[in-house]
Each structure stands twice: as structure tokens, then as C-alpha cells.
Amino acid sequence: MVNPADRSGWLANEHPQEECGVLGIYAPREDVARMAFFGLYALQHRGQEAAGIAVADGREIRMHKDSGLVSQVFSPARISALTGDFAIGHVRYSTAGSSSLRNAQPYLIDTQYGQIAVAHNGNLVNASQLRSSMLRNGVGFSSSSDSEVLTMMLAGASGGDWFERIRQTMQHWQGAYSLVILTRDQLFAVRDPWGIRPLTVGMLPNGGHAVASESGALRTLGCQAIREVKPGEIIMLTDTALRVAQAIPPASETALCTFEHIYFSRPDSFWDGQSVHQVRQRLGEQLAREAAVPADVVIPVPDSSIPAAIGYARQSGIPYNDGFIKNRYIGRTFIEPTDSLRKMGVTLKYNVINENILNQRVVVIDDSIVRGNTTRPLVKLLQDAGAREVHLRITCPPIRHPCFMGVDMGTYEELAAHRHSLEEIRRFSGADSLAYLSLEGMMNAIGRSNGYCNACFTGQYPFPVDAHVAKTGFEKPEGEPA
Amino acid sequence: MVNPADRSGWLANEHPQEECGVLGIYAPREDVARMAFFGLYALQHRGQEAAGIAVADGREIRMHKDSGLVSQVFSPARISALTGDFAIGHVRYSTAGSSSLRNAQPYLIDTQYGQIAVAHNGNLVNASQLRSSMLRNGVGFSSSSDSEVLTMMLAGASGGDWFERIRQTMQHWQGAYSLVILTRDQLFAVRDPWGIRPLTVGMLPNGGHAVASESGALRTLGCQAIREVKPGEIIMLTDTALRVAQAIPPASETALCTFEHIYFSRPDSFWDGQSVHQVRQRLGEQLAREAAVPADVVIPVPDSSIPAAIGYARQSGIPYNDGFIKNRYIGRTFIEPTDSLRKMGVTLKYNVINENILNQRVVVIDDSIVRGNTTRPLVKLLQDAGAREVHLRITCPPIRHPCFMGVDMGTYEELAAHRHSLEEIRRFSGADSLAYLSLEGMMNAIGRSNGYCNACFTGQYPFPVDAHVAKTGFEKPEGEPA
Amino acid sequence: MVNPADRSGWLANEHPQEECGVLGIYAPREDVARMAFFGLYALQHRGQEAAGIAVADGREIRMHKDSGLVSQVFSPARISALTGDFAIGHVRYSTAGSSSLRNAQPYLIDTQYGQIAVAHNGNLVNASQLRSSMLRNGVGFSSSSDSEVLTMMLAGASGGDWFERIRQTMQHWQGAYSLVILTRDQLFAVRDPWGIRPLTVGMLPNGGHAVASESGALRTLGCQAIREVKPGEIIMLTDTALRVAQAIPPASETALCTFEHIYFSRPDSFWDGQSVHQVRQRLGEQLAREAAVPADVVIPVPDSSIPAAIGYARQSGIPYNDGFIKNRYIGRTFIEPTDSLRKMGVTLKYNVINENILNQRVVVIDDSIVRGNTTRPLVKLLQDAGAREVHLRITCPPIRHPCFMGVDMGTYEELAAHRHSLEEIRRFSGADSLAYLSLEGMMNAIGRSNGYCNACFTGQYPFPVDAHVAKTGFEKPEGEPA
Amino acid sequence: MVNPADRSGWLANEHPQEECGVLGIYAPREDVARMAFFGLYALQHRGQEAAGIAVADGREIRMHKDSGLVSQVFSPARISALTGDFAIGHVRYSTAGSSSLRNAQPYLIDTQYGQIAVAHNGNLVNASQLRSSMLRNGVGFSSSSDSEVLTMMLAGASGGDWFERIRQTMQHWQGAYSLVILTRDQLFAVRDPWGIRPLTVGMLPNGGHAVASESGALRTLGCQAIREVKPGEIIMLTDTALRVAQAIPPASETALCTFEHIYFSRPDSFWDGQSVHQVRQRLGEQLAREAAVPADVVIPVPDSSIPAAIGYARQSGIPYNDGFIKNRYIGRTFIEPTDSLRKMGVTLKYNVINENILNQRVVVIDDSIVRGNTTRPLVKLLQDAGAREVHLRITCPPIRHPCFMGVDMGTYEELAAHRHSLEEIRRFSGADSLAYLSLEGMMNAIGRSNGYCNACFTGQYPFPVDAHVAKTGFEKPEGEPA
User: Fold this and answer.
1) pLDDT tens digits, residue range B153-177?
2) Which of A109, A411, B449, D8 qualifies as a cystine partner to D140, CB 3.0-4.6 A?
3) Residue C478 covered by a domain
4) Are D177 and D281 in the same domain?
């Protein structure tokens, strides 16, 4: 647990970091690049570092990608230059440093079979071995990304068509991959056999289909008949019907990421057939059952904890209200308060509505504690506003293990619940009480007993993971190829 | 009421547009420019077009201003270059067109008495006459802004010190002005005798004082002992105490802007001594009393209507929930959907959480209807999501008159409630029922019977307004001086 | 004389700095903004800091200006937005610091008589007194520029039309001013009675007229029938004919700037009725007569000394050749060599063609020595290339006095020939011999015996100059109004 | 020959386009990135589209590259971030379109042997076959560049060290390649056995060595003991001595590019042991012997033809003078004159010094005619200025064949002298006479009878070239990989 005055905690995001969002559109009678733009817009929460769109018109693929938000990367002129019938898109999560452009996706390469462009959400745990083997065969890599490994493997695949080449290559991949793959005249959606990251497909109102990491983005595009791409499936998007194949059998036990429910997905998306907003509301209700406390008001840490706070309030009968105001204009400011200002209490990300807190016993609902850096400042804001008691309630169990399937939770050393007991975390946070939702309670709220990956809570990964190797996806050396 | 498919309605903001936010800091032992940066940050909701900070060090004034958000205008290097003990700052609201830089504030000029910098929130209704008179005296103006008129008048004022010069000039100003005025070694806060726009002052924890449009910004800076600058007051900020003078008598009847409660101010600010969040909650409660309807869920139009929706839900006993997801990354995109995409339902600003709406009787709380362009699309989003009934509830009376005191409500011709009956508006909106809060109910919720300007509802302006003249503040000719 | 290893000398421009170039076009059937763009392009050598164009269409004036080169400031979209029949333009010279935008011209203001835009080349020596007087009358200034003073005075002028107002205001101005003044439907060219800075006017091929600082820019626009605006004249540009008035009598002795011949003007321009290229060639010929020396080759310091070197070579019979290569891509680099690199001889601006220098007795022609910083490095480059002898020949007399009429020659303290004897300068330069052209020889080459300002050589200014006051044009305080 | 009013001709560069310049530095006690910056600066004329520097510190390689001029691509902060002992750099020529960043060099990849970075000047004529073969082996390419092929081949090479790997790979390359290759702790310079493109190496004053496309860049860095990298050599740069190996035997007949003498190289560079300036001067002298004409003045088309014009004047006894003024501030403007302005004679790139032309018989020296687009406008400028006669003299023979070794001369269809007789070209140009230098005369002036590639004049390529295949280096499809 970090000293609350720690500089690094100031703007730090306490949440796990999603790797990406992907999108694919086949819409022969529409402006597919513009549709892709709006679709990526709706996936922006999954990655703010870089964005890209590749478009195919039957003869060739054109692409534009850059670092920045979707609305910064694409001007009207850029969109207009991308004409075609097929589009794929990608948004990438925010990391520190200057490596943003190098890692932007889609990847577009020439292969013996023509051009392909690939956009990837997930992480291959055996990328390092696959990459070493290709290096030994004389292939050069321009990044350390597992997504480039995956793309290069497609270039070297054998098989009479792309369906077959993708299918054969999938045999070698272990880990999380929700992919969209574009050729000059075909578009495929691919999901790993464990179903780790989401991928959904739907029918566009004017013909054609779209695929996206989240159903919320498909709805933004007006899609109907939305369904998930199933674990192990390859789906080829066409004008009239989807061509669906179970390319490799689904894992005996699927490993859907629980955190899509907890935090990642938009509340208007579905995950595993359920409304994310409603699951979160039930998480709050369950938390109220498990960790009741007499109090005067229930407040969320906005925005992701709002549905759970509503649920907690409903179940407990304690009134729901706003307590924090989240500054909407933060953007990428690099100006930080001096120590003197910080001691004066200058706050940037959240302000408190004092009148709703003064003299109250407050239940604060947050979705997770990862590194623990921001918990103490939040609690202190409430105490400074005159809260009589502060009761912290977390809508998932303690996170004690890193994720190797595409989410940056940090290392073992960084995880608060790996290094500290719950009582220590409570004490550091300054809260009067702290409770996490139980694993059983969480799964109850989700309404499932298995089929999910809860490795970050339990350490039970869906397949053997060599931690040293698996981490390379997040530990990129400074001087890597550009 | 505009056709919902109207292009102009797509990204239009249905809310009235605030003119500005102002800020002043005297903190001799702190980094005042950095403090001003954080203070403006907390006022960003009052204006996103341009931002500026001027700093004085006892010998001279340095300034930086530009178009853009506060975080875009100021880099660490820019902030570091602004050294001194005094700072004033300004944020400006968003207008179309390219005039942003020209109208950025503060205004900084050389006068016979040395440099002054001025930041203004409000609108002088007699600016046009004052400007004409100065033009006839041979003064040239580089903008059509009333704020430049006001600044130039200070340059020409007589009096032995700035206190006296400001006092004398105030005699000539009619309208709304909350001002901060900086010289090379003094800083003044000034508010018009009607008290139209807010202005508050507080004590900084380490000595010195700060003044800001809203108490929420002062709290961000750690201020204590916050009070309003009273109508007609000039306050000089000093290290140890405020030097306060009742420069001109307050108006017999003050005219505080009701819309600060309804929409403009941060919910964590005070206005007229009351918590804005709590006033909004009471507006919702009152609305539930006046316009009850059997329903299954109460949802807000985020973000400004959330407190009122919580209040409506509490009073009515109907459960509160989220219905709309507001896209947080809109930014200044210039890419719009094609007509075909729009017909497909491609949405940008709001998405619906269908599961919370399907088959429900929904009460939607919105804070106001100005031009009426966005009401129909919002109702339709709910109906498309399967709402059984949609009941629109507005937390203020119908807006039938323009504002000439610093808020861009549009012209008579543009105001939906000026041109149409409420039944027409309801029919155009597609809602099953529509109700506005009554004037009396609104004032009850605010807890006052007078002292407020309700001209936009009633047409009773606090002083005679020549509509043609007063409008110049909003009708700037294309080719005006830059 | 500065230490040749002095950092400040590295990229320093040894030449005097011109203040500006101005341009005006009335072309009712053409794209005047585009014409103004090309005209400013041809004046870019007179100022690289900022550029601006204002256009009038009979009803109003639109403007765009910014810091940067003409090609950077104006995009096709910017040009297209400036529609009208009249245009004026301005380029500004390069200074250090960040004040560029604030001082960009034209100035555009509203006056009691409507909008005016003004672009100015020159410097008023009584600007400080005029400004103080206006300040006392209550006028505020947003810069310390004499051009703003001049513009504000026009706003306060009396008279029935602009012709009369300009005429009356000219009575008060002392110093150098070549002006273009734009109203919503008129365009005037004005030149001071001493004729200090150039201003020429010509007829456009398709009707209309253009005015510019140099005839070279008018030729770029296809102008014919080019003549100078005479000292004391106001010329109104019209479609068919020029309306010319001798607004105030020319000075009994005109004071044309000799340095336009020596250095400022394009070689394809005329100044005082003579080809600048040919005058420079004759300066070289005269220098060969006055300061002959046995040598093997004559080389210019490119680009401005090329014509004089050709002349010197012709007269002396010594072969002309290139000796220096000037790097064309310098731009605004801010990366400087380390001391270690500098000692290694890393050179940025000039390289030597060693084969043309090795073992040769070299005559180097340069147009002037101002601060003397770059003379030593140039001589050393030649010596390092194996020159047997280096003979420095300067095409004007020693510069011993500052200019107060719009050229930044530096202060007395900075002028090499003010502080040092010629022998000292030679010794510091390392040259084997150094000779300046005599005043008489220079005037012979120009072909005039009087009518020129040679104050920088002689100290005899065309009117009394209070050095302290006159300098304000170049000594702008850091914190001046923005 | 293109219509002189053709829009595309307006800003077109009549000269052949060089592919690139390369640079390598090993300087263990200096700021190598800063040195590389200044070295690239001196090579900027070889490519203005993009620039890049890669630096190795013994452990890893860091790189920065972007589109733009060297001074635009590198800020002081960028340079400071590139710390190490070894640097390579690259500048790329200007092409239309948006593909600049994708093709920027160096290429940096991870291989089985660690990182390598490669910068290439030249063109492999068998790149297409090599690429196809690698594609069939499953390699994917992210560009269509032959330089990427070459880099990928190094990744797949076998051999115990890089010296051996480079040597083996060179066996497979046919065409022009002057390469610098950087590993984490070694730096190699490599030149093809035909010696087509230049590459020189020298000793740095403070220890270490540098290699560059031109000796002029090495001189800028203070190098001494400069020699060429010989055809077929690999040179490893070390601190104290060069490690030189004749990796493959030089071609029986070398094929040095004649156009380095004619146009590409800086005049202060050496090519084939001779001063480029002096060769050009002799080309002019020879032209005067071959194509004498009675005339009054000899003028160059600046800047590349200046030495030849000086030579022509000396040999013919006709006086040398300037006739054209070249605008130094062109930059990348995208604003073009309207047809109406063009007809008025609005000129952008060149102006004429009328006084030097009026009533004169003018000999104009130009270095080459490629597409012929700009010849007519230049002649017309002189005729409009009153030239009595215009005699065009070209310092090389007619260009009738494309180049496949790294120079963009255009296709057969585009070459004026391929499609037209010399009399046709003269007639289209409007000149009174036109003469090209003979092949023999050119080689006489160069002082060599063989060892040069004159394929663009004769069609005799140094090795068999399949025109269709070889052209791919210049005919990049729109939608190529990014």
C-alpha cells in the first residue's frame, strides 16, 4: 500500500487497464469507415492511447492509425479517404511513455496470399516461445507485441484459404485472443477457445454485419440479432448471412473474464448473455447482504460503481446519493500540484458534495482495489467533508494475482491484497470498515457457478502460465524495435 | 421545435450556454499560476472555448491565453513562466466559429496608471451605448466584446487609486458583471449591484485569499471561510485580511440568476448560501409533488439532472436508476453520421441501458428545454429501447424569454416555449406526458420568495432592456476586429 | 567584437534586421487573398516572424494572422475564407522570444468611422510621446508597438473622409512609415515625407492596382507601370486609376534608406529608380577601384553579396567563383553544437568548397559588418580550407550608429565599428586585410550625391532623435500587454 | 513535353529525385546523436521527406524518425534522449502522398541475433524476386520497400558474426546499395560491388570515425583522412582504426552514378576522387566549347547550375551574371495560383532580374531536362523580361532511359527526350537554341573514360534489368502496408 501522499498516486488510475477494443464491419452499401469511427467511439473506454481503422474495397487495404483518442486520430478527410466495403478498427489502452504509435493497431502486412490487417484484444501466454521460434527461422520483428507474432504467423500459415489458415494457426495459440482479420475482400472474427475476452456479432439494419468487443458498440451502430462469437469460432462476415465455423473445440471449461462484469464493459453491454448494468446492480445487492452496516447514505465512486451503489442502496434501504463529483475535463494534463498545494488539499479528479456527507455515516461503493494508491485519498476527502463514518465496500474479492490474459493489473509486488492483509488495507485506507464481496457472492450475483476466469482472485489460471514468460506482454524493454 | 433528424440538432447542446468563469488568487508564498490552473480546472464546466491566466509579481503582469480546454492551453512550461504573487484566470464558453482566440480573456492593456488585466463573467446591457460614446471620443476597439468596453473604461477612469477608479466606473455599468481586476501589485474582485452572476471569496490555508465564480473552485484550492462577494462590493485581496468596500449600494431588489441552481453551477458549489446539489434534489422532490405519475423507474438525463432525479425518486417512491449512458469522450469531433447512418440509429452522445427501460413506464428528469432540438431524440431512444411509457419532467418552468445578462439562451425565435404551447412541445417530443415545474414550486424548492432573476421564465427583467441593443453581446458580426 | 567561439554568434545573423514588408491589392475580379499570399511570399525576406492578411469586401474586413512563415500561416482553407476585393498584408521580421503573435500585423480595429486595418513598415521616433499623450486621455494599449499608436491615432482623427483623416494624422508623425490602410471599401498607401522606407505601386494586368514595399513583389503579381509612392503622398487604389494626393510636402531633403541598396531589397527590385542588382554590382566595382589587392579569386558571402562580388571580379579582372555553400534548410533549429563539436569545426550555416580556396589568395565580399560576431568564423573557415591570404572587402562604410527608423542594427554598445578601430576589427577577424567602401564611393556607385539617410555611417539623422525615446521600438519590456 | 500551363508543372521539380542520404558515426566520447543531427543536416539536399536517427549504447538501440525536415523531426529533447556511442541516420527524398512515415528509415528490427537498424541509399533491382521468395517462406512485409527486404534478409542470414552475415547476404543483392548497419555494439558501412551510390568514411578529430553518403557531410563533422568505401567493401567503424574487408570482389566494370556529378552531390563534396564543384565548372567549360553561341550574358538556373555557368562564362569569355532569383522560402506550400493569376504571370519559384536580361542575348545553363515541364516557363520568364535571344545549354546528354538504381527519373513515357526529338523540345521550350553536352564531352570533363553508369543517357545498364520488375521501387500501390 502506497503512501497516500505519493506523487505517483495523484493521477493514477486505481483500476485494471484493459488492453484494447476491436471492431469489424461489412456494409457494402454504407460508409464503412464512418461506421467504424462511431463504433470505435463507443469502445473508447477500452483504450485511449491509440486508434486505427483499416478498410478494404475488394482490391486493396488502406489504413490510418495514430496515437490519441478516436476523435483526435480521425478527421473528416481521413475518414473520407478510407473507402471500401469492409473495415476493421482498434483502440488501445493508455500506457506511459512514447511507445504509443509503434503499438497502434491494426497491423497491416503483405503476405504471400496478399494483404492482411489484424486487430487483437487479449494476450497470448505462449507468445514468447512462438516469437523465439520464428526469430530462429529468420523472421525479424518490429515490436515486442504478441499481436505482431500472431499476425506474422498468419503470413506463414498454410492452407487453401484464409478460413483454413486461421484455423490451423489457432492450434498454436494459447491465451486470450478476440481478433478481427481483414483481407482485401474478406473479414473474419475469431475468438479463443476459452472465450476469455468478449466478442459479439450482429446484423446491420441495411444489410451486412458488424462485430465488436462489446454489444454496446453494436447497438450504437443500430445492430440487431446480436450474439457472441463463441469460444473457438471463426465467423466470416458477409452481406446476407454469417458463415460460422467451430474452428477448434471450445475449452472443456471456458474462462470468461469476470472483470468485464466488474469494471471493463459499458453498462449497456451484454457479457455472457447478461446486462452488465444489471449484473453490477446485483453485485451491489449481494454486497449489501454480505456486508451490511448501519449508515445514512450510500454513494458510488463514479462512474463504474454507480449501478452497484444503486443496488446496495435498494437492498439495504439506505438512501442512495451522489457524494463525489468527477471532473470530466481531466484529459491528459501533465501539470501536478506542488507538495504544498497537495497538503492544502488541492484536488483534481474528485470533489466532494460536502452537504451530502457532513455528519453522515457513509457507505462508499468501489468496484475494485488494485494497487491501493487512490483509496486513502478518497476516504480522506470524505472525512475532511465531515463524514461521521466511512464504510468501504468493494464489489469483488481481493485481487491477489496478476492477469496474463490481456489486462494490466500490475505485478504481484504491486497488488495491495497480495502484500497486505485486509485489516492492513483498511487501516491504511483510514476507513472505519472495509469489506470485499465474497467469490461465491460475486458468482451468485453473476448467476453462474463456473465458466469464468477468476485467476486474479484465486490464482487458478485457465492453463499453465509461466509467469516470467507471460509477463513480457507488459514489460516491454525501452529500446525495443520501433 | 426542430425536426429530430435535423443535422444541427445532432450535437447541439440543449442547455443554455454560460458565458464564463473567473478566478483570482493572492498567495505570496505559493505558485499562484499553478493554483490558478487548478482553480480554472474546477471552473471548466463554465466555459470550454478558451482559457487564460495573468500573473503579477509587483512589477509587471505576464499573461498566457489561448483557445482550448485549460489542460490544452497550459503546459508545465507555460505555468512555470508565470511567476508572481497575484493571478487572475478566465474560462470562456464554447461557441461555433473561429473567433475563440480573439475573445479569450483576461484582457491585458497598458493604461496611464500602468498595466491592468481584467476577467469578466456577465454581460453589460448598456455596453453598446458606452462603446459608441468611446468610439466617438476616438478610441478604437479590437473586438465587439462588452468586456473590452469595460476594460477600456477603466483605462480612462479618474481617481487617485484603483479602488476609486473602479468605484467611479461602476456607476456607468448596467448589467451583470462579476469581475477580477489585476494590476501589477493589486487584485480586486467586483460584483454588480444586482448580484446577477456568482462570485465568492475565501481564505487560503497558507495565507492569502482567492476569489472564484463558484465556491466549488475555492474548495478545490483548499479555501475556508468562504463567503460571497456581495452585490455592489469591491474586495481587494491581501495577505492577511480582505479589504472590503460597498462601492455602490446593492439594488433594492437583487436579481440572482436562478439558472445557477437549475443547471450552471457545480453540484458541490453554494449559490445564495445553499448547496446546489440539495436545491436540485428539492427541485426534483417538488416536481414529484406537482407532477406525479404512476411509473416503474425514474431516470435522469446525465449529468446535471441526477440530483433532481434522486429527489423525484425519493419523494415519489418510484425506484431511481440509470437509463442513459453519456459518452465521456465526445470532445470536439467534426465527424457526423450520414443520413443513412442516422436513420439506422447511430448515436453518439447517449446510449440507453435497454434492460432498465424495456417494458417500463419511465419518468425522465431533465433540467430545462431551451430550443427543444434534443428532446425528441432522447424520448425516441427510450421508446426504441422498449419503454412502455415516457413521462418527461422538467425541473424549471418553460423558458419563454432570452437572457441579456450573460447567458446564451438563444433568441425569442429559437425558444421552443416561446413559439409553441406545452401540448405542442409534448407532441413533438413524442413523450406520453410532459410537465414543467411551476415558478412557485421552483422558488419553494430554492427556499426564497424573491431576490432572483426569473426573466427567462417571466419576461420581467431586473432593469429595462432594449432587446435590440442588449443582444449585441451574442450577435457578433463575422468580420469583427480580431 | 565578440569572441568568435561565443555561443550567441553561432546562428546569429550578422546583418541588420528589417522591420517588415507591406502589401496592398485592389483587384475586384480576382482572388485578392491568394494574390496577397503570393505577394507576401515575395516579401518574405523582409520578415520571417509573422504574417497576416486582411481582406475587405465592401461591407466588412476579415483577417488572419499568425506567427510563422507565409506558407505556414496560410492554408488553402484560410485563403479561401478571405473573400473580397481589397487586401492588405504584412510580414514581420524575426526576433527572439515569444512575442511574435502579439506584434503580428495588420492591426484591425473598430472606429467611430467603421473598421480599419493597418500594416506598417518603419518606426515613428516620436511614438513614445504620442502614446503617453493618448494614455493620459484614457486610451488603453494592448502592445508597446508604434504601429498600434499610429492605428489608434487614426481611430481618433477628425475629418470628413479617410483621405482627410490620414492627412491630418500624418502631421503628427515623425519618423519612417510606409503604410497600407484598409477600410471596408477603400485602400490607401501612405509614405512619410522623408521617404525613408520604400513603397511602390503598380497596375495589375486585369485591372486594379497593387502596392508593395518592393517592386519585386509587384512584378511577381504581374504588375506594370510601377512607380514609387512619393514622399508625403497618399494614394488611393481604385479599379481604373490611382487617386494620388501630395498630403504633406516632402521633406526639403529626403532620407531614403541606403541599406535597401546594400542589403535589404531583393536584387530584382528597384529602389530610387535603380535596379538593386545593378547598384550592388557597381558597389563591387567601386570597391575594386578603392581597395584593390592582388588575388586569385573573388568570392561572395552568399546570397546578398553575390552581385557585388561579380562587380568586384569584373572590375579587378580577378576570377569570380563560389567559395561558400550556404545551407538552405537551416529553418528554425534550436539544436546547437556542443563546445566539443564546435571545436571540432562542426559548421551549420556555411561550408567551404575547399578546392576553390586551397592555396589561393581570396577576396571575400560581404555587404556589411554590424556586430562582428560572424566575421571571424567565416575567415577561419577559409583559412582552414588552405587559403593563402584572405582579404575582406565590405560594400559599405563602417556602421557606427544605430538606426531609429525601423531597422534593428543593435545599440551603440553592440556595433563593432563603434567600439573598435578598423585595425582592431581586422585583427579580430583574422583577415590579412580589411577594407570598407568609402561613403563617397558608395554614393558614386548609387549615382546620387544626396537624398539618402546615411545616419548609421555618419550619425547625421534626418531629424533630431532622442536616442532614449527612439529606442523603445526595439526595447520591449518582457511583460508588455499581449 | 507537358503543356507549360499544366498545373502539375507549377511546383514540379524538373530534376531527378535522389532516393536518400545515409550516415553513421562511432564517437565514444561525444554526443553522437547531436553529431548525427548535424551530419544529416548536411545531407538534407538528398532527401526532404523524412529523417531518422538510431543510436546504440552497447546494450540496446533507440530510434526516432518522422516525416519532415531534419530540423523539424528532431527537437533538443529528442536528441538528448538518444544516448550512446554509435549512431546511424537517414534522410529520404520527397514524394507526393501520405506514405512518408511508413517509408522513413532507419528500419529497426529484432532478430535472432539481437536488434539491428539499417539505413539504405540505392535500389535493389532484384528486390521483387527476393521479396517473393521470402513471402513464400511465410515472412510478412509491412512496406513494399526494397530496404525492408534487405533488412529482413539480414535477420535470416547465417554466419557466426555480423561481418559474415552481411558478407553472405551481399551475394544475393543485385543493384545499388550504400548501407549503414547498426547493432547494439557495432556499426558497419557497406557498398555494392558496382559502387553505384557514393559512400565515404573519415576519421573524427577526437577519435572514432564517421561514414556518410557525401564527403561534404563528413567535413561538416570535422572529419579528416576521408576516403570512399570501395565497391564491395564492408567497413566496421571502431575507435582507433577501421576494420576493412573486401567482402565481395568489385564488379569488373564499376558503375558510378554520373548524376552525382551533374546534380545530386553538394558542390563541396568529392565523387570518385574529384571535387564536384570543379567537375561542374569543367562541364560548363566543355559545353562552351561544344555549343558556343554569340551572346551577352551567361546565367545559371540556381542553385545547381551555378558552377557550370561560371565555367561556361570563363571559357566563352561571355560575362557571367545572375538572371533568376530563387525564392528561398518556398517550403511545402499547397497554395497554387489560379489560372487567371498564372496567366497574369504570377510566379512563385523564380523571379527574373529584368535589368540583367533586357535586350540581352542570354545563355541559360541548366543541369538537365527530365520531364521538361519547367523548361518552357523558365524561358518565358526571360522572354517576358525582354531577352533578345535565349540559348538553353544543358550540362549533360539527353535523358532517354529510366534509372533503376535508386533515382526517380520517371518512366519512359515521362521522359521528354524519350518521346521527343531535340528540335521538338527546343520548339516546345521556346528557346532560340538548345544544346546538350555530348556523352564524350561529359566524360572528358569528368576526366574518366569508363567506370560510370550512363544508362539514363545510353540505356546500357550495368546488369540486366527487367524493367517491369525493377520499377516496383517507384510504383508503390496506394494501399500498401503501413
Assistant:
1) 999 999 999 999 999 999 999 999 9
2) A109
3) no
4) no
Q: Is residue A460 part of a domain?
A: no
pTM: 0.89
A151 interaction partners in chain D (CB closer than 8 Å)? 140
Q: Dihedral sign, CA of C261, C267, C272, C273?
A: positive
Write out the residue range of the structural domain in which residue C281 sits.
275-329+341-452
Query: Is B331 in contact with A42 (Cβ distance < 8 A)?
Result: no
A20 tagged catalytic: yes
Residue C335 lies in a domain: no
Of A229, A257, A285, the residue that ends a domain is A257
Selecting from B76, B206, B356 the residue whose C-beta is nearest the C-beta of A344 gives B206
Give the Cα-Cα-Cα angle C93, C98, C100 (nearest 5 degrees).
35
pLDDT tens-digit series, residues C13-56: 456 665 799 999 999 988 999 999 999 999 999 988 899 999 99
Cα separation, A215 vs D288, whole angstroms = 78
Same-domain check for residues C57 and C182: yes
Give B366→chain A minimum CA distance, Å: 17
Which of D70, D338, D344, D350 to probe the C interface (max C CBs under 10 A)?
Answer: D344
C142 vs B142: CB contact, 8 Å cut-off?
yes
Question: Do A114 and A242 lie in a common domain?
Answer: yes
CB A442 within 8 A of CB A283: yes
Q: Please answer yes or no on whether C266 and D325 come within 8 Å at the CB atom.
A: yes
Contacts 24+ apart (CB under 8 A), B238-241: B238/B26, B238/B209, B239/B26, B239/B28, B239/B207, B239/B208, B240/B207
CATH of the domain at B68: 3.60.20.10
Are A307 and A430 members of one domain? yes
Cα–Cα distance measured from residue A357 to residue A381, given in angstroms and rounded to the nearest whole number: 10
Residue D84's closest chain A neighbor by CA? A479
What is the spatial distance between Cα A411 and Cα A408, in angstroms, rounded to a whole number? 8
All three cell numbers of B205, joined, read 490555508
D touches B, CB cut-off 8 Å, minimum 3 pairs: no
With residue C392 as reference, give the H or E element that holds it: strand C389-394
pLDDT digits (tens, 9 = 90+) for A2-50: 222 333 333 344 566 657 999 999 999 889 999 999 999 999 999 888 9
pLDDT at B344: 67
Residues on chain A bordering chain D, Cβ-to-Cβ distance under 8 angstroms: 59-63, 65, 107-112, 115-116, 135-142, 144, 151-152, 154-157, 477-482
Q: How many domains does chain A have?
A: 2
CB D391 within 8 A of CB D362: yes
Cβ distance of A356 and B42 shorter than 8 Å: no
* Same domain as A240, residue A281: no
Query: In this structure, is residue A359 part of a structural domain?
Result: yes
* Closest chain A residue by Cα to residue D153: A138
CB contact under 8 A, B135 and C112: yes
Among A257, A287, A306, the domain boundary falls at A257
Alpha carbons D186 and B316: distance in angstroms, whole number: 78
Instruction: Give ∠ CA D40-D41-D46 in degrees, rounded to 5.
Output: 70
Q: How many CA atoms lie within 13 A of C470 on its CB side?
A: 22
Separation of alpha carbons D462 and D251, rounded Å: 9
Three cell numbers written together for C370: 554590424
Same domain, yes or no: C228 and C324: no
Q: H helices then E strands: how many in chain D?
A: 18, 25
Chain position carrying cell 575582406: C392
Distance from CA of D377 to the nearest CA of C (A): 14
Do both D215 and D289 map to the same domain?
no
Q: For chain D, list the contacting chains (3+ Cβ pairs, <8 Å).
A: A, C
**Active site residue ranges of D:** 20
Distance between CA atoms of residues D226 and C279, nearest Å: 43
